[in-house]
C-alpha cells in the first residue's frame, strides 16, 4: 500500500485509447505484478510468461473456448515499462462489445479497473518520473499546437526537473553545514561560509525569478493566446472571426447589434494557439440585453492578451477613430488597429487613415487576413520564443516557486542581519520544502489525488 491510498500491489486495467471513436483499433492497458500472468490466462498463442520484454505476439482472446477477438499483445517486463511494473497492452478491434468483454475477463482473472491517472501515478511512485514530469504527461495529451507540444515534451523529458534538482542539491549542501553548526552551537563555530551562501542564494533567486516570469508565456503556450475582436457594431467583427476559422461560426448580418454575447473559438497560427473572442459591438444602447453584451465586451477586453480593434471606413471618420482609441489605450494591453472593408477604399482614401498606422483588410473578401495573422504573432512576442528554454506552465509550480523566493529572501535577511543558525536553517528548510513540492520530493495524499484525478482513466 502506498502512502496515497492506492494499492500498488494490485494489477490494474483500463482502455488506453479514446472511447467512442471510429478508429479500427483499441488498446487495453494492464499493469501490475501479475499483469502478464493474468493476460496469459485469457490469451491463446505463445506462452506470454516465457516471452522477452518489448515483444509483440499475435493470438486470440478467449473466454473458455469462445473466441472474443484476434489481438496483438505487447509485453513490457518490469522495470522496463512506463509504470516500472510488468505491463501488457492488448490491441483489439475497436468494438465496444469486444472491449467490455476483454476488460471484464481481465477483472474476472484478478485485475481491477484503474482509477484516473493511476498508470502515471505508479510511474511516479516507482521512480519512473517526478511529479512535474507526471503533470507534463497530462499537458502533452492536452497539447493542441506545436508550441504547447514542445514545451510539454521538454518538461516531460526532465528539463524543468533537472534545473530544480541542481538548485536543490546546491542548497542542500549549505543546509547540511548549517545543520552541523546546530550540533556545535555551544562552540559558536561556522561551517557554512556566509558570503558563499549569500552568493548561492542570489544565484538561485535569479533562476527562480526567471522561472516565475516564464509562466506568463508558458501559460499562453499551454492554454492559447486570448484575443478579443472588438469595435463598434456592424464593422465586421463576426465576419473576421469566420474568416479566421474558414467557417460560418458567427452570425453575420447588416443589422447593428446582431452579436449580443461573446463567441469563442481557437485556431492555430504558426504553431501557436489563439483563442479568438468575437464580442458585442461597443456603443451606447437602450436595449437591456445588448447593453449586457457591451459590458461583457469591456470585461473580456480587460482579460485579453491582445485586442483586435476594427473600424469601418464607411461609417468611421479618422477623428471618430482617434476618439475611440483612448479607451483601448487605458487598458495597457497590446492592440492592433484594423481598417476593415479596405477593398472599398481608394489609395487616396487610405492615405487619410495612415495616421493611425493601421492594417488594411477585407474580412469578407479575405484580403489581408494572412498578414494580420503574422502581425498577431509579432504583437504577442512569441515569434522568437525558444521553446527549448525551461518554462513554467503550471500554476501550482508558480505558487511553489513564489514561496521558495520568499523563503530565500528571509535567508538573505538572516545573513545581512545576523541571526542564529537555527533560524537560518529553518528558512533554508522551507525553501527546500517548496522546491520539493514541485518535483514530488515532498508530497501529500491530497496533493497527489488532486493531480492524478484530472488524468484520463487509461493514463
Automatic annotation (TrEMBL):
Q: Which gene encodes it?
A: mnmE
What are the binding positions for Mg(2+) in this chain?
238, 259
NCBIfam families for the chain? mnmE_trmE_thdF, PRK05291.1-3, small_GTP
**Record's keyword terms, sorted:** Cytoplasm, GTP-binding, Hydrolase, Magnesium, Metal-binding, Nucleotide-binding, Potassium, tRNA processing
Query: What is the annotated localization of this protein?
Result: Cytoplasm
Name of the featured protein: tRNA modification GTPase MnmE
Instruction: Please spell out the taxonomic lineage of the organism that makes this protein.
Output: Bacteria, Pseudomonadati, Bacteroidota, Sphingobacteriia, Sphingobacteriales
UniProt organism field: Sphingobacterium zeae
Subunit info here reads: Homodimer. Heterotetramer of two MnmE and two MnmG subunits.
Task: Say yes or no: keyword Iron present.
Answer: no
- Give the EC number(s) under which this enzyme is classified: 3.6.-.-
Q: Any keyword Ligase?
A: no
Amino acid at each position: 500500500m502506498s502512502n496515497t491510498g492506492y494499492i500498488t500491489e494490485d494489477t490494474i486495467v483500463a482502455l488506453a485509447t479514446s472511447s467512442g471513436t471510429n478508429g479500427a483499433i483499441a488498446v487495453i492497458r494492464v499493469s501490475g505484478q501479475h499483469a502478464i500472468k493474468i493476460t496469459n490466462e485469457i490469451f491463446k498463442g505463445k506462452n506470454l510468461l516465457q516471452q522477452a520484454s518489448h515483444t509483440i505476439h499475435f493470438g486470440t482472446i478467449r473466454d473458455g473456448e469462445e473466441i472474443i477477438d484476434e489481438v496483438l499483445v505487447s509485453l513490457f517486463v518490469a522495470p522496463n515499462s512506463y509504470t516500472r511494473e510488468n505491463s501488457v497492452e492488448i490491441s483489439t478491434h475497436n468494438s465496444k462489445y469486444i472491449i467490455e468483454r476483454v476488460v471484464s475477463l481481465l477483472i474476472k482473472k484478478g485485475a481491477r479497473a484503474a482509477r484516473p491517472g493511476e498508470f502515471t501515478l505508479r510511474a511516479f511512485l516507482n521512480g519512473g518520473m517526478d511529479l512535474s514530469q507526471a503533470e507534463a504527461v497530462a499537458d502533452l495529451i492536452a497539447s493542441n499546437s506545436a508550441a504547447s507540444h514542445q514545451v510539454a515534451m521538454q518538461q516531460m523529458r526532465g528539463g524543468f526537473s533537472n534545473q530544480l534538482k541542481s538548485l536543490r542539491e546546491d542548497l542542500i549542501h549549505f543546509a547540511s553545514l548549517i545543520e552541523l553548526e546546530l550540533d556545535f552551537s555551544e562552540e559558536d563555530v561556522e561551517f557554512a561560509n556566509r558570503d558563499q551562501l549569500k552568493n548561492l542564494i542570489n544565484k538561485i533567486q535569479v533562476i527562480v525569478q526567471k522561472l516565475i516570469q516564464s509562466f506568463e508565456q508558458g501559460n499562453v503556450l499551454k492554454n492559447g493566446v486570448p484575443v478579443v475582436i472588438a469595435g463598434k457594431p456592424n464593422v465586421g467583427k463576426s465576419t473576421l472571426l469566420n474568416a479566421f476559422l474558414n467557417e460560418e461560426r458567427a452570425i453575420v448580418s447588416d443589422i447593428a447589434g446582431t452579436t449580443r454575447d461573446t463567441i469563442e473559438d481557437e485556431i492555430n497560427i504558426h504553431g501557436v494557439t489563439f483563442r479568438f473572442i468575437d464580442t458585442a459591438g461597443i456603443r451606447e444602447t437602450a436595449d437591456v440585453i445588448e447593453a449586457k453584451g457591451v459590458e461583457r465586451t469591456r470585461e473580456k477586453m480587460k482579460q485579453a492578451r491582445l485586442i483586435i480593434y476594427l473600424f469601418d471606413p464607411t461609417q468611421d471618420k479618422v477623428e471618430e477613430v482617434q476618439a475611440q482609441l483612448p479607451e483601448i489605450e487605458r487598458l495597457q494591453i497590446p492592440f492592433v488597429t484594423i481598417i476593415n472593408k479596405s477593398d472599398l477604399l481608394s489609395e487616396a482614401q487610405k492615405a487619410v487613415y495612415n495616421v493611425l498606422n493601421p492594417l488594411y483588410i477585407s474580412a469578407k473578401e479575405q484580403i489581408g487576413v494572412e498578414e494580420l495573422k503574422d502581425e498577431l504573432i509579432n504583437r504577442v512576442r512569441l515569434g522568437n520564443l525558444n521553446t527549448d528554454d525551461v518554462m513554467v506552465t503550471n500554476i501550482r509550480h508558480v505558487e511553489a516557486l513564489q514561496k521558495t523566493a520568499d523563503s530565500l529572501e528571509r535567508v538573505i535577511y538572516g545573513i545581512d542581519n545576523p541571526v542564529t543558525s537555527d533560524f537560518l536553517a529553518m528558512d533554508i528548510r522551507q525553501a527546500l520544502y517548496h522546491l520539493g513540492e514541485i518535483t514530488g520530493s515532498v508530497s501529500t495524499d491530497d496533493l497527489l489525488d488532486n493531480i492524478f484525478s484530472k488524468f484520463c482513466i487509461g493514463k
